[in-house]
Amino acid sequence: MSEFVIHSIPGSPFGRAVLIALEEKSAPYRLVPLALGSHRAPEHLARHPFGRVPVLEHGDFRLYETQAIIRYVDRVLSTPSLTPAQPQAAARMDQLMNINDWYLFHGVANVIAFQRIVRPRLTGKPPDEADIAAAMPKARAVFDELALQLGNSRFFVGETLSLADVLLAPQLDFLRATPEWEALTAEHLNLVKWLERMNERSSMAATTWERVAQMSRAA
Known about the structure:
The chain is an alpha+beta fold. The chain is 60% helix and 8% strand.
């Protein structure tokens, strides 16, 4: 089978989700790192017309959008399956993946994690505390719903890892590095324990920002 090639910015939670999916499948892959800001360069726009990451190449097949990529990986590499066989469980997984993209990322992680982590590294400027404060009500609503969806289960769709966990884990792990994490999880110990279980997985350990940076230097 052709090697999987992933174009992504090191540290991107969406790029990390693709790497986690490939690690869970024990699939060989190669990371092509993009520098911050280069996702708007003509070379990358030829891969992704909307200038985002990640992009997957598999032989002569190219695909963008993280959900599409990890679903493709799960279909091409059928074991272990990361999609529940039961239709209602699969639908719950789909719902959680959309919560990640539309509610956890937009207006929460892309504000809080960006201001706390990315902005200082990228610009040298301090976080915009007003932007962070404005994002917190939505963040609390999202964390409340994720905790409710998880309940007492080991993973988000029952006792087996699914694509929902693969997509949510990098985003929540990114937020864990911010001071807001403690306030957001104070009443949601199940989310804290879930992320601890996820971080014990070899797929998470192999795709930390530090490990991806090492991959990037070796590329």
